[in-house]
Amino acid sequence: MISFETLHAAPPALVAHAPVLMVAAPLIAACAAALSPSARTSWMISVTGSIFAAWMALALVGEVARRGAVDYAIGGFAPPLGIALHIDGLSVLMALLVSSAGVMASLYSGHSLAADVRAEKHTLFQSGFLLCQTGLLGLVSTGDAFNAFVFLEVSSIGTYALVAIGEKRDRRALPAAFNYLIMGTIGATFYVIGIGFLYAATGTLNMADMAARLATLSDSSVVQAGFAFVVVGLGIKAAMFPLHGWLPGAYSYAPSLIAIFLAATATKTSIYLMARFVFDVFPNGAAFGQGFITSVLAPLAAAAAIVCSLQAVFEKEIRRVLAFSSVAQVGFILLGLSLASVAGASAGLFYLAAHALMKMTLFMALGGLAISLGARRIDELAGVARDAPWSAVAFGVGAASLAGVPLTVGFLAKWRLIEAALQSGQIWIVAVLAIASLLTLLYVGRMLEAIFFRPAPAGAQRAREAPVGVLVPLLVLAGLNIWFGLDASLPEQLANAAARALLGGAS
Amino acid sequence: MSFILSHFNYIAVATLMMAGLFIVFSSGNLIKRMIGLAIFQTSTGLLYISLAKVSGGTAAIAVEPASAEARDLASRLDPAYVAQHGIDGVVYSNPLPHVLILTAIVVGVATLAVGLAIAVRVREAFGSVEADEIEVLSRIESTQPGPQT
Prior knowledge:
The complex is a heterodimer of chains A (507) and B (149).
Chain A: H1 12-16, H2 18-35, H3 39-67, E1 70-73, E2 84-87, H4 89-116, H5 122-141, H6 145-164, H7 173-202, H8 207-214, H9 221-237, H10 247-253, H11 256-281, H12 287-314, H13 318-338, H14 342-370, H15 384-387, H16 389-403, H17 409-423, H18 427-453, H19 468-486, H20 489-503
Antiparallel strand pairs in A: 1-2
Helix pairs in contact in A: 2-3, 2-5, 3-4, 3-5, 4-5, 4-11, 4-14, 4-19, 4-20, 5-6, 5-11, 6-7, 6-11, 7-9, 7-10, 9-11, 10-11, 10-13, 11-13, 11-14, 12-13, 12-18, 13-14, 13-18, 14-16, 14-17, 14-19, 14-20, 16-18, 16-19, 17-18, 17-19
Chain B: H1 2-6, H2 8-26, H3 30-52, H4 68-75, H5 79-85, H6 96-126, H7 131-143
């Protein structure tokens, strides 16, 4: 067991206000970055803000390990009247994931941004990136349903703009961002409508308070309509199959920094909020909730895992392959959650963290190569391993992890999912996982074959090794893929605590 | 008929909502889609505001309990309604949904601004704001190799 309680070494005065500092630090940094005179300064501000947020997230991990859950009444107004931040095992897992993804992405952005973003946009880009972090961190830590909407939109509006900035490299980023904006806003508005219904039925917006009042209201059709709106709205944001249409475009044409950060966090936080509602806010065991999990969530997740893996197999553009793979992997995560057992939720959340790690590695390796090589299609990457061995090796590790090769975190994550499915007696989920994993092997194999075994065609543009500023975070991520594959006690501990927080210890 | 009258606000909200969504999905013009989105978002505002109305309720600004204004407001309430709920004095509408929707409007304005800004950039990059024309131009792009750097 690793002791989180003293790991962060933050002074008590900071720890006491860690929940709000974690959210406010990137927000303040965003203002500073927007006003900063040069790209270099804004990059330093971005790195500082992200590291500070990650430090506070780590402090919260310690606090939650010590006290179980942290409640922070903003401005001293006690809930249910005031807005409260409520941070439990699940929130800290997500906060740690988002903030460390933010640190990695911002470190990486120092050397990669010039290739992706017009020079005059660098300060604003960093500002938008920090805003997006603010929104995601706020979303995972708030205890107020409407506040969650505001944070969701803060992060989304940042994301729309950041995806659109990718137009320097590929003008298709613009329609992709527009599409994402339309779908994202419809999703968020559905969520608001749902919250409106729930507010009408319960008269409260505080999630804990709402859960207590909903316990006796599960027969009310207003509550059930509210549930449907909330779940569909968040389903769009989480790219739940078949509501994932916006995702491939947004991920493939965004600047590589944003693809890295989004792949690790954006859909994941929406999954978090959906799980919060399905398991925590709505009465656990209510007929409509159970019906949703077994006859909507699980089949759709299985369909996503298979259909989108197939789409990835036939896709030619490398970043679109990874984007479709992301939708399929969201299916894996939701399959784990749909088991509605502590083991299942823990496996799903472990998969969520593992997937964030491997997709970050893959997108970062591609981003590093893209600095010197404008490759879009898989066959353009032929022979890259000879020109840029380190990036290629890191990509290989990420890809192996995605395919579930033993000794990588991806293998452990899949293993835990299968174990949990067997425990619940859901053999068909095991079959789905096996088929989807085979398909994953196919598309991963295609990419690796091009990179490692095919010679570069004569006269083709050659890649150069990524600069050191990109290689360091990249190799750290690749190393973590293997480290957690060998010794997963740290993510396991966090995922177990998160699953217990979500399902209240019941199995 | 009485159902329609008593649920008038919800019918209006649902109509607006569906109209907005229909425009978003049926139109290929990016600007029209933004208009549809704005209508859709506004309809939620109406939903929240109509939820907040308490019948006979006044704006949530505290009135001196024994003042002439308070007696005047109380006298306007429906006697049957007062007797049913045991109301003594002034009834206020719920201010919280107004505050919530004020926030949602701000979010909506920001979304609209970002969306229109992207539409302008789309027009600059593709020379069109029609989704199908952009689609055709994008398809050409996906067959070409990446840009040389």
